[in-house]
Amino acid sequence: MLVRKNLTITLHPSEEQEHELTECAEEYQRVCNIVSKWFFYEHQLRANRKQFNCELYNKLRKNAPRLNSAMIQLTYLTVTKRYHRLLSLLKNVGENIDRVSLIKQPLNFAKMGACYAYKMNYSFPKKGKFISLSVLSKRIRLPYTVKPDHPLMASTNHFGVAQLMRLFGHWYLIVPVSYEENLLSPDGKI
Question: Checking CA distances to 74, which of 121, 145, 173, 174 falls within 20 to 30 Å?
């Protein structure tokens, strides 16, 4: 059975790298807000990935040329996940009420970080020492803190789409990790 847990990685950027992370997160948020308005106004929360690629992807590549292609694709995923989560919360409102009509305006993505796809936008070139992250028009290497022998860092695990966050003045990368349950030790720990 496949098990999924989140691994929290603490990033230690220099001042310049912190500025680059902030710029990248702000640009990602700006593009998410564009996608949110498109998803809300033009498609009433029913657009699929094909429609996104046909109607919006090329416009966003021109509008945000410093954001790489994978991150632009991830904006669609970020926006649709947030809307679907909200709609599932509204599920208990009543069966005769259209849940979509309860949402009066597009969701705002002002207070979130950026999303990163493994091996496209983030990787571990030297496990235990550096993490490589894409920022606007380039890639940076940052020292990070997580135990190098942490079981979730095993190469047999699958790393998912990570979320870059800044909380209380510190930068974190929250990485969903999937692994086979049979990798658990007898005491139930990985």
Answer: 145
User: Among residues 17, 19, 24, 22, which one has the least CA distance to residue 143?
Assistant: 17
* Sequential DSSP letters for 68-96: -HHHHHHHHHHHHHHHHHHHHHGGGG-TT
CB 153 within 8 A of CB 146: yes
Distance CA 113, CA 187 (A): 36
Strand partners, 171: 11, 166
Query: Which residues neighbour 103 within 8 Å (Cβ) at sequence distance 6 or greater?
Result: 40, 45, 83, 86, 87, 90
| pTM for this prediction | 0.86
Using CA atoms, how far apart are residues 29 and 114, in angstroms rounded to an integer? Answer: 7
Helix or strand (DSSP H, E) at 6: strand 2-11
Highest mean pLDDT among 24-33, 38-47, 150-159: 24-33
DSSP string, 97-123: S-HHHH--SPPP-TT---EE-BTTTEE
